[in-house]
Design goal:
This protein is of the alpha/beta class. The chain is 47% helix and 12% strand. The longest helix is centred in the last third of the chain and has 35 residues.
Length: 311
């Protein structure tokens, strides 16, 4: 299994700064992509925040399957000190519900008044800066439809009694689960240069053929679908004129078109993972990791035996 690795210098710095500042904040706001709540949830954040209350904000909810959003909200809210809020850019009033939700999670002082300090964080390109600008009512955080826009921490006062500490979008050093790597790439959370476009398109097409066939039929005006993702991409390449010499499908071109269709919502409201699916993947991932560790131990022991024989 191929593992995707990344760790730009500014992310390492951001993690160090987060560790230093976290003791001073009252709660954490973690922004997740509604389409991939597990894959966009940074495992480092759970360790860093400890027992502090957390609000899981499910962004881009207009692009995700509503039934799956509800499943993830139920899953997260079963955890201690956790609340959720599903948001989208086309409903700014819902975004503005966040401060009141945060206040409900943090106990009041004896006087009933407390200045609330919240750290807001999330992986790159998840919509964190757009949320901050909506809450602040002004452009205080740089936005962009690409990963790694925010580079440093900044304090933003939303009111006299509510301060947000904005942090750069941080990824973790290595993605443990191969499917999560593909989901991050398919949604645009990591730079397009990190994985080949056609590989990402094959993954996305395979998943959608199985789970959202009607969405593909409607978007690409197909009455029937093939069983294989490569054949599917060949069919839509012909329909869209993405052909090379000899009328052969240009997989780079059609892959980019297909991935972009998904990212901007042209295929409808689609989720790429469910809590049940992720639970199975975690168990399988842990099993494979154990097998690899056992194999490494066997090889190490065998080397020691051979070394002794050669003395």
């Amino acid at each position: 299994m191929a593992t995707l690795q990344w760790y730009p210098g500014h992310m390492h710095k951001a993690q160090k700064e987060m560790r230093e500042v976290l003791p001073e904040v009252d709660l954490v706001i973690e922004v997740l992509d509604s389409r991939i709540p597990f894959s966009s949830e940074n495992p480092m954040i759970q360790k860093l925040r400890g027992d502090k209350p957390v609000v899981k904000v499910l962004s881009k909810s207009d692009l995700a399957d509503p039934e799956n959003i509800a499943l993830w909200q139920e899953h997260f809210e079963s955890q201690h000190n956790t609340k959720t809020l599903a948001i989208s850019t086309d409903d700014p009033n819902r975004m503005k519900m966040l401060p009141d939700l945060c206040r409900k999670l943090v106990p009041l002082t004896g006087t009933g008044y407390k200045k609330l300090r919240a750290m807001i964080l999330g992986i790159p390109n998840v919509g964190k800066s757009t949320l901050i600008n909506t809450l602040a009512g002004r452009a205080v955080a740089k936005t962009g439809n690409e990963p790694a826009v925010t580079k440093r921490q900044q304090k933003i006062w939303l009111a006299d009694d509510f301060m947000l500490l904005d942090t750069p979008g941080i990824l973790w050093p290595k993605q443990q689960f191969e499917n999560s790597s593909y989901r991050l790439a398919f949604t645009g959370a990591i730079k397009d240069t990190a994985m080949a476009y056609d590989d990402v398109a094959y993954f996305g097409a395979g998943y959608l053929l199985k789970n959202y066939p009607e969405a593909l039929k409607e978007r690409y005006q197909l009455t029937d679908l093939p069983d294989h993702e490569v054949e599917f991409l060949e069919i839509i390449a012909k329909r869209r004129g993405c052909l090379g010499a000899g009328g052969i499908a240009d997989f780079n071109k059609i892959s980019e078109l297909f991935v972009n269709d998904f990212r901007i919502g042209m295929l409808g409201r689609i989720s790429l993972e469910t809590p049940e699916m992720v639970a199975r993947e975690v168990i399988e991932g842990e099993r494979l990791a154990l097998q690899i560790a056992e194999r490494k131990a066997e090889i190490k022991l065998e080397r020691k035996k051979r070394s002794r024989k050669n003395r």
